[in-house]
UniProtKB/TrEMBL annotation:
<dbReference type="Pfam" id="PF11854">
    <property type="entry name" value="MtrB_PioB"/>
</dbReference>
<dbReference type="InterPro" id="IPR020016">
    <property type="entry name" value="Decahaem-assoc_OM_MtrB/PioB"/>
</dbReference>
<keyword id="KW-0472">Membrane</keyword>
<protein>
    <submittedName>
        <fullName>Membrane protein</fullName>
    </submittedName>
</protein>
<feature type="signal peptide">
    <location>
        <begin position="1"/>
        <end position="25"/>
    </location>
</feature>
<keyword id="KW-0732">Signal</keyword>
<dbReference type="InterPro" id="IPR036942">
    <property type="entry name" value="Beta-barrel_TonB_sf"/>
</dbReference>
<keyword id="KW-0998">Cell outer membrane</keyword>
Length: 668
């Protein structure tokens, strides 16, 4: 089954800002302070008058793009070569009666842009409206031998060029209304996704083709929240419905050769709250959900059902407590529970082997999961210069009918914050983790298909060691330095076949520069290395080959801003970014054999000059350059491998340019 939203997504949506941000944390805002004995008139700001009317900036952009690869549209906001136009805005309105409105827009008119509007009366009600268009470009010259039209994939006598890209159009409308102690809210969002993406099927040989995409997702969330002097609570309901307008795909000579993503829906109701007693805060959350997929199935020999009748029930709960036992010592902990109960129908299916049908029947098995977690932590502040934190986390997961029925992950961690030296801050974190569990390979479903020595990395026993150090230094008023170094090692000491070891380490350096009131700049550098080792068996027995995989990533960047030129009318700026990633694989069997590597790099340069025509009007000229290159050994021409039809070599190698002239007007 395929569902548009998983349990984590639903849980986050219930408390996210998308539902007008009703926080479950304690409200320590200024508006909750006791001001009954304060003479407010004494503290009124005489130089901060309430600005009424319209304020903000609106801009109009004229853009010219030169590129021979649509992949550059991911950086420029559109793949349209030549002239383009867009609008930027950041406008505000308010009056003396408390009515406020805000409108924001960015690159509105291009293939990647958004607009946001909110209006209402402070402390009473608010209406929000949103529109966003997101487009991702994969390739503009994919070579396809199957052409889609009206649900049929028609083989073409000649290879045709096809664009692989996805466009999402999102629109949303929300309303909230409240008073001092309560708030009600409702929001509706709709998303339409269209385009083509790479896919494959066997007909009867493997064929890659452009899969049409035309789907709609509708989300509705509504809720009530209440708050008092020391408590808050929130009741929320969320529903999502996914509908795929692409039906089963057919060939001219064969029906229903490809099944699309099925329609589905998800529901969740949640209750959360928090209560504060003196220096102790207790918070909790309980959520119950259901995911349903009952779309028709493609009919074939041996399939006894018309539709899957799938249903998954979910239950989530969490309780957290934190208490400040003294001015220096804080203690906290939490317990959480999550259950995924598969209520889908059970059917009997004939079992097939290479030499024919055995005559035996087996049932499909609903897979259930159950997770329990416990966390305890403590924090002690020795003085203003030293603070120590430590904790223990445990997570237990039970899976029905899996390779391993039960696993548990234990993590012991500690943090130390040091501010003993002038203008220097140090932070250290170390952790030790261990995963164990029940006997591996207990599932009858997989024991005959998998080598009994094989261990899946997310289920296998593992020991993890991790360390992180952060350094912050401000040696002068014009220079700040931040450095981070990290290291982690995973040791799968009980694994003979599978991932046996992995190391992940890297660093980040950031410089902030403020030479004077007019000239500022920044620079950063970061690298990451991931080295992995795995073992395999060509003979379906003990290990007889191994692989070493080395991944490396690097990011470099710098930029500057210069203001105050030409009597404070002209400002200049620039940004440069370099990103590179490589992946090398060596297979060791009888001899060491390098496998096809993956490499990509990107140079991005942005320059801009802004000139103030007056106090309200300004012109901005900007230039952006992108150099992009990638090579993936898995990308091959259409008929390079006999019996396999691909979409061609989809690697990229291009230079792209963008020039933008903007006019902005500031409302005062």
């Amino acid at each position: 089954m395929r569902f548009k939203f998983n349990l984590i997504t639903l849980s986050l949506l219930a408390i996210s800002g998308a539902v007008t941000g009703t926080a479950v944390a304690a409200d320590f805002g200024v508006n909750k302070a006791n001001t009954s004995t304060v003479r407010l008139e004494v503290f009124q700001c005489k130089r901060c008058p309430q600005v009424e009317g319209y304020t903000g900036t609106i801009g109009f952009n004229a853009t010219y793009i030169e590129s021979d690869d649509i992949h550059s549209g991911n950086a420029f906001g559109t793949d349209n070569d030549g002239a383009n136009a867009s609008v930027d805005a950041d406008l505000n309105y308010q009056d003396g009666a408390g009515y406020k409105a805000k409108f924001q827009a960015h690159q509105l008119g291009l293939d990647n842009g958004f607009a946001h509007l909110e209006a209402g009366k402070s402390g009473r009600y608010e209406i929000t409206a949103d529109y966003q268009q997101l487009t991702s470009y994969q390739s503009g010259d994919a070579l396809s031998q199957l052409w889609y039209q009206d649900g049929v994939l028609t083989p073409s006598e000649h290879t045709q060029t096809q664009e692989l890209s996805l466009q999402r159009n999102k629109a949303g409308l929300g309303l909230s209304y409240g008073r001092d102690f309560y708030q009600a809210y409702v929001r509706y969002d709709h998303e339409n996704k269209t385009g083509y993406q790479s896919s494959s099927m066997v007909t009867p040989r493997p064929v890659n083709f452009g899969l049409p995409v035309d789907a709609n997702t509708d989300n509705l969330t509504a809720g009530l929240s209440f708050s008092g002097d020391s408590w808050t609570t929130n009741l929320n309901y969320f529903v999502s419905q996914y509908k795929n307008d692409i039906a089963a795909l057919s060939l001219p000579y064969l029906y229903d050769v490809f099944s699309p993503a099925p329609d589905n829906q998800a529901h969740q109701i949640s209750l959360s709250g928090q209560y504060q007693v003196s220096r102790t805060v207790v918070s909790g959350r309980l959520a119950s959900g259901k995911m349903i997929q009952d779309d028709d199935l493609i009919q074939m020999s041996g399939n006894p059902i018309q539709n899957w009748d799938g249903e998954v029930e979910t239950l989530d709960g969490k309780l957290s407590v934190t208490s400040l036992l003294s001015n220096k010592f804080r203690l906290g902990g939490s317990v959480d529970y999550s259950k995924r109960d598969n209520k889908g129908s059970v059917w009997e299916f004939a079992q097939f082997e290479v030499n024919g049908i055995t005559g035996a029947f087996k049932q499909n098995v609903p897979l259930d999961t159950e997770r329990r977690g416990v966390k305890v932590n403590a924090s002690y502040r020795f003085n203003s210069d030293y603070r120590l934190q430590a904790g223990f986390d445990r997570k237990e997961i039970e899976r029905s009918h899996g390779d391993r029925e039960q696993t548990h992950d234990d993590v012991l961690w500690a943090k130390l914050n040091v501010r003993a030296l002038d203008d220097i801050k140090l932070k250290f974190k170390a952790s030790l983790g261990n995963r164990g569990g029940s006997e591996y390979q207990t599932s009858e479903l997989t024991s005959s298909e998998s080598n009994p020595l094989l261990r899946k990395y997310y289920l296998a026993d593992r020991k993890r060691t991790a360390f992180e150090a952060k350094f912050n230094h401000t040696p002068t008023s014009w220079l700040s330095l931040d450095m981070t170094a990290r290291y982690a090692k995973d040791d799968y000491d009980e694994t003979q076949l599978g991932l046996t070891e992995s190391e992940d380490y890297g660093y980040d350096i950031n410089l902030g520069l403020q030479f004077n009131e007019h000239l500022s700049g920044y620079a950063f550098a970061g690298q990451q290395w991931i080295d992995s080792n795995q073992a395999g068996s060509q003979s379906f027995s003990t290990p007889d080959w191994s692989a070493d995989i080395q991944d490396e990533f690097i990011n470099l960047g710098a930029g500057f801003t210069y203001t105050g030129l030409m009597e404070d009318k002209l400002s200049l700026g620039g940004d440069y970014l370099f990103a590179n990633s490589t992946s090398d694989t060596l297979i060791i069997y009888d001899v060491t054999t390098p496998q096809g590597d993956y490499t990509s790099f990107n140079h991005s340069l942005k320059l801009h000059a802004k000139y103030a025509l007056s106090e309200e009007m300004a012109l901005k000229l900007a230039y952006q350059y992108e150099r992009y290159y990638d090579t993936d050994h898995a990308q091959i021409d259409v008929d390079t491998v006999p019996g396999l039809t691909t979409l061609g070599d989809l690697n990229h190698n291009y230079n792209a340019h963008q020039v933008m002239l903007s006019f902005s007007y500031q409302l005062r």
